[in-house]
Amino acid sequence: MSSMDVDPVEEVEMAYHGSQTEASSSRAYGAVIIDDAHPFDLETYISGYSGRAAIDRLIYIISLSPSLAPQAFKRAFQLLTVPTQRDTDYYKTILGTYDNVSSRPAVRLPPLDELLPDHSPYLSWVDETNERNNAEYRKLEVELKTYTGNMIKESIRMAYRDLSTFFRVTGSFEGSLRHLTKSREYCSSTQDLLEMCLSVLELLLEQRSFSHIPTYVFKAESALDSIGTSGHTSSSLGFGSSASGGGAKKIDLHQAVEAKLALCTALSHLANGNYGKATHDFLQPMSAAALAPWNGNIVFVGDIAVYATLCSLATLGRSELKARVVESEGLAGEGEGMKELLDAWMASNFRAVLGLLEKYSARYLLDPLLGPHVANLTALIRSRAVVLYFQPFATIRLERMSAAFGWTVEDTEREVVALIQRGEILGRVDSQNKILRARSTNHRAQLYAHALKAGAEMQGATNKLLLRLQLQQSNLVVRKAQPPPAPTTGVGASESAEQ
Fold this sequence. Notes:
The chain is mainly α. The protein has helices spanning 8-17, 22-25, 42-46, 51-64, 69-80, 89-102, 112-115, 120-150, 153-169, 173-183, 190-207, 213-226, 253-271, 275-282, 288-291, 301-315, 318-326, 338-346, 350-359, 361-365, 374-390, 398-405, 409-421, 443-473, 491-498; strands at 242-244, 247-249, 395-397, 427-430, 435-438. Residues 252-443 form the PCI domain. Residues 479-499 are annotated as: Disordered.
């Protein structure tokens, strides 16, 4: 029941390239190269995802990395016809994306006929799935009309929820969101309202529409505050359970909801480039069990660890990073290469830090949520590393800094000058001798200046007091006019008048 009028290539470019920053959009199309210096294991990466999330990320990889496009194309068609997949528009979208990449200049990819010699099984799947979708849609519409006519409030809410789920799995996000918002009128309890808000947030994350997330996070928090903690578990809202020790471990309702709301808020801040606030929310308690069933269907918990670690390095000081990330039990530091990155940072081995960021840059760029912010986060981490390296020194040669960071002297000088201009480094550069000097502070001069300023202020106050004293002695002070006495009334007043 999804739209068939939008060109698939334009749809992919609008969905995945519309939110990119200026830094990432300036990157040439298909510039993410996979080689020995920039490894990327597609199967390992995509194994953490399922359903629409896996296909969406494969399409994103096809659009950005020609070297991975054939492998991602085959993997996407393997996932296309799984029983739970009912969005037939994916067939044209995958073909259109691959064809668009193949038509780019200087891109040589295997032809479609070689990768997909027989289209008939997929065309049959499209026809059968569309027929099944139409039949289910008619059934759900009849149920909604029946419940509406009978005025059964709870049944109407469930019917709207089922229709929303149907539109979502068939690719019509607009229809899904419309039916979810309609179901709000028939929510009879706070728990129903909370379930509706979480469903909308899940839909917004899948659609990557981050502007409306704060509104529904606020509504969900208000609903959560109204629900008592006694007797509620995550299963009451369909959050599922996690296997632990051979048994099913129930997750507390508040714990599960707060983890999901923190994730939504963090991704919203990340999308807006507010990395400081994103760090605060990413470091909130999260786990795969608390995020179920979003884990893998919306975003993989391993990727959340990568987001948290990079945002922490870009925004937190050394002591705060050690307390909140290195010594904590949160997700930060658990992603691929993140422990090495944190160890190198805490050891002040900034050359290794920059090397690891470059090594895993392909992995970051091929993430649709992180990719648009890789350039900004890397620049922030690099600048913070330079500032931390220079802190203990009063004077240092640029050659030594260049060796510490693996840069040329000219690159180091440009980086240092930019930091001085932004006020992040208090120093100056001797361009002739290639020396960076910190601004020296003459404490004795500061003490004398402070004493002279205090003396001048005291002298001015004393002069004002002397002037006022002289004016009073000469009777030149203008006093405030006194109001005339009020007329007296009563018996005493009448007697004095007769006298």
